[in-house]
Amino acid sequence: RMLGPLLATIDAGGIELPEHLVEQVVDGHQQAMLWCMHVEQRLLDVADWFADAGGVEFLVVKGPAVAHLDELDPSLRAFADLDLLVHGRDMDRAIAALEAHGAVRRIPQRRPGFDRRYIKSIGLVCDDGVELDIHRSYTGGPHGFRIPLERIFAAAEPFEVGGARFKAPSKLHRALHAAYHGIVGSSRPPLRTLRDMAGYLTAPELTPETLAAEARLWRGEVVLAEAVRATFDAFTFTAPEWRRWLDGVTVDPGELAIIERGHRPGTLPLEWTTV
């Protein structure tokens, strides 16, 4: 999913590749963008389905939101699926609406009411292969329950797709989502997520004072510090304020242990009660 930046670099003369490789990049990027447009069409569909179901308040996270709000051109940010943040109180209605239009859950609900109270996200697949991830929180485990979700919904930022208006988390909260997705969500942060993070760390309005202060409200300063560290390890870019901030952060070993435990496979039994 990095063909957009690669193609832009080739066009700008920053890298030279043999013609046959350039053709592969162009073809691969075109296919990726066609899929992104298909996913965005599904976003328009889902908005209609939720409206018909009586209304479901949701925010678009990652994918289309980052492409349209944080890139110089949306084509620089490819995505494969659709991630929506939904209020816990709306989870049951949202899932029912998607299933009514043919989407199939990957994993059954553990027991009635579990999704709206505890789940991090629910994965569904449409018959055309489009995957939908319906999130109750940004992440799972202790960190997910610490996040003040009402703050995210209250500070939402608008953007447009296909002439329709949608809402995404604010830039401040998109940056923290990238940190959580990279550090809590994976033992090896995806390169595209760290690229998103590098963009946020070089945004003038996202200073350590503002972003770290919000992370402290989430009790997630260690998550942010690890994301900043991983981003500096992956890329060469200029962000001296963040270098100084990182040098001054004291990382709590207990918080690191929580993050590491979240990367291990679960061992608890699952209950498949459906009545």
Q: How would you portray this structure in words?
A:
The chain has 275 residues and is of the alpha+beta class. It is 53% helix and 11% strand. The protein has helices spanning 3-11, 19-52, 63-70, 91-100, 114-118, 141-146, 149-154, 171-183, 191-201, 208-217, 221-234, 240-248, 253-262; strands at 58-61, 82-86, 104-105, 121-125, 131-135, 157-161, 164-168. It has a five-stranded mixed β-sheet with strand order 1-2-5-4-3. Strands 6-7 form a two-stranded antiparallel ribbon. Mean pLDDT is 92; it is low at 268-275.
Helix vs. strand class: alpha+beta
Any low-confidence stretches, pLDDT <50, length ≥5?
268-275
Q: Kindly state the mean pLDDT as a whole number? A: 92
β-sheet strand percentage: 5-15%
The level of helicity is 40-55%
How would you sum up the global shape?
globular
Distance between the termini: 42 Å
* Rounded Rg: 19 Å
What is the succession of H and E elements? HHEHEHEHEEHHEEHHHHHH
Number of helices, counting only DSSP H or I runs of 4 residues or more: 13
Major sheet attributes:
5 strands, mixed
Strands ordered across the widest β-sheet: 1-2-5-4-3
Report the count of strand segments: 7
Question: What is this entry, summarized?
Answer:
With 275 residues, the chain is α+β, with helices and mostly antiparallel strands.
Ordered list of secondary-structure elements with their pairings:
Layout (H helix, E strand, L loop, with lengths): L2 H9 L7 H34 L5 E4 L1 H8 L11 E5 L4 H10 L3 E2 L8 H5 L2 E5 L5 E5 L5 H6 L2 H6 L2 E5 L2 E5 L2 H13 L7 H11 L6 H10 L3 H14 L5 H9 L4 H10 L13
Parallel strand pairs: 2-5
Antiparallel strand pairs: 1-2, 3-4, 4-5, 6-7
